[in-house]
Description:
Layout: H1 5-37, E1 48-56, E2 59-66, H2 82-100, H3 117-138, H4 147-171, H5 174-209, H6 217-242, H7 246-249, H8 254-273, H9 283-296, H10 315-325, H11 351-356, H12 358-367, H13 381-395
Antiparallel strand pairs: 1-2
Helix pairs in contact: 1-2, 2-5, 3-4, 3-5, 4-5, 4-8, 5-6, 6-8, 8-9, 12-13
The protein binds heme C.
Amino acid sequence: MEFSFNLWLEYLIRFAHVVAGIAWIGSSFYFIWLDGAFTAPEKPRHNVDGEVFMVHGGFYYQVEKKKIAPGELPKTLHWFKWEATLTWITGILLLVVVYYLNGASLLIDPTVLRLNQLQAVGMSVGILIASWLIYDLLWHPRLVQKDSAKRVVTALTAVFFAGLIYLNTKIFSGRGAFIQTGAIFGSMMLFNVWVRILPGQRKMLADAEAGRVPDYSLGLKSKTRSVHNTYFIFPVLLIMLSNHYSGVTGHPLNWLLLIVLSVSGALARHAMVTKNPLERLTLVPATVGLMALVWMTRVEVPVAVDVSALPPVSTQEIHALVQDRCVSCHSNKPTDDIFKIAPAGAVFETEDQILSYKDKIYNRVVVLKNMPFTNKTGLTEEERAKFHRWYQGLSK
Ligand code: HEC
C-alpha cells in the first residue's frame, strides 16, 4: 500500500515520543534508585545528608544529597525537565494525529455514544483540562498539610480517578477511553512538574542566590507531587501499550479492566520503592489483579452455530465476502468516508493477502468480533460463521 505522509508523520512522532519517554522514565527510575541508595557520608560534611558511590563505564562517580546553603550555588544546575516536556508535547501531537484527525474515528464508537468529530475532540480536551483542575485543587498544598487530610484526599482522589475512567469509557471508544485516560494521567505528571514542583525549586534557588536560607518545606511540598508522578508511571505505560490489545480496550467491562490495570501498576511501583520489606507484599494484590484481568479477558468462542456442521467455505467465497464488507477500508484506495488509507496497513484485495492475514482476520472477525470497524458494513452473524468455518477448514 502507499506509505502516506500522514503515516510517516505518525511514525516519526511516535518514535520521538518513545525516545523522550525512555529518557524521562529512565531519569525518574534513576532518581528513585538514587534516593533509596544514599547512606550517611563516611566523613560527615556540612549540609550533606547522604552520599552514593557508583561505577559506570570505567569511571567512579560520587553523588551527594545536600541542601543548598546561601552562597553555595553551583554555576550549572541540571533540572531534568525537558524529557518530561518533550514526552508530553509529542504525546499530544500523537493524540491529535491518531485520534483527533481522520474524523476522530478511533475516538468515537457510535455503539457507546453518537458523537461527531467536533463533539468528541471537544469532550476529550475539556475532560483533560477539568481533570487537572480538580486533581490540582484536591492536592492544593494548603489543603493537605496534615497527614489526616492527606488520607482523606487520597481516598477522594481514588474515587475521582475511578469515576473519571468510567466516564471516559461511556463517552469514547474503548481504545479512545484508554488513551484519553493515559493522556490525562500523563498531563497531570507534566503539570505537576511545571506548576507545582519547579516553582518551589526556583524559589529555593532564588533564596539561596540572594544569600537567604531557603525555605526547605517548599521542597517537601513539591515532593508530594513528585511521589504522585512515580505512581503514575506504570499505569500510564500499561495504558499506552494497551492500545495494541483490542481484547482489553474493547472488553464490555473495559472500565473495570482499566481501573484494575491502573491500581496494579501503582501497587507494583510501591513495591519497587518502599524501604519496608513487608510493604513489598503489595506485589501480591498487583499480581492477583493482573491474573484477574487475564481471566476476565479469556475468550470463549461462542458456538451459536456449530460451524463444523456447515458446508466447507472456500477462500474464494471469503474473498467475495471481504470485497463486500472489508475493502471499503482495507484496500490500497479505500472508499470509506473516514479511512482514506488502509487501517494498520492491512490490505485485503487478493486471496493471497487474505490468507497471509488469516489468523488476524479470524481473531478480529470471529473471536473478538470487532471487525468490521463498528460493523459499519453490516456483516451478519451467518457471514461471521462463514469466516469461522473457512478458518477451521484452513487449519486442518
Ligand atoms: C470502516 C472501516 C473498516 C472496515 C469496513 C473494516 N475494518 Fe478492519 N480495521 C479498521 C481499522 C480502523 C483498524 C485499525 C484499528 C484496530 O486495530 O482496531 C482495522 C484493523 C483490522 C485488522 C488488524 C490488522 C493488524 O495488522 O493488526 C484486521 C485483521 C482487520 N481490520 C480485519 C477486517 C476484516 C476481515 C474486515 C471485514 C470483515 C474489516 N476489517 C473491515 C477499519 C475497518
